[in-house]
Amino acid sequence: xxxxxxxxxxxxxxxxxxxxxxxxxxxxxxxxxxxxxxxxxxxxxxxxxxxxxxxxxxxxxxxxxxxxxxxxxxxxxxxxxxxxxxxxxxxxxxxxxxxxxxxxxxxxxxxxxxxxxxxxxxxxxxxxxxxxxxxxxxxxxxxxxxxxxxxxxxxx
Length: 156
What we know:
By secondary structure, this protein is α+β, with helices and mostly antiparallel strands. The chain has 6 helices and 4 strands; from the N terminus they run αααβαββααβ. The chain has a domain at about 40-140: Alpha-Beta Plaits (2-Layer Sandwich). The chain has helices at about 1-15, 20, 25-35, 55-70, 105-115, 115-125, and strands spanning about 40-50, 75-80, 100-105, 130-140. The protein has a 4-stranded antiparallel sheet. α4 (about 55-70) runs antiparallel to α6 (about 115-125).
């Protein structure tokens, strides 16, 4: 049934939304738009170490991120998730339980998010279980993703 509804949506809407059809192109457009509107995009990566790091507590925090942090104005990208158990190389920092990844169109969008009531409510409702929070903010350069297709070998 879900597939049928999705197919109908595609037919009646004229196809996939541009971000779904070509996410790299959509991100590149967002980057160019951000540059015109006041500077580079801002990457806001947050890593939460929880006092109670049970699977239930991790899931609860991801759900709170989805509820309060996923749809702020000026957000170009949002994702939240738990630490991947399969990555245990020496270089992997494993001192966290839940990660939040946000990319904002520019610093103004980041600053608006930082003081937004939904963000503040998220903090208030969840901080009791935070052992440590690390925030990494960065200015992002133009979006580039994937590899260019390999050139076909010429045959004679």
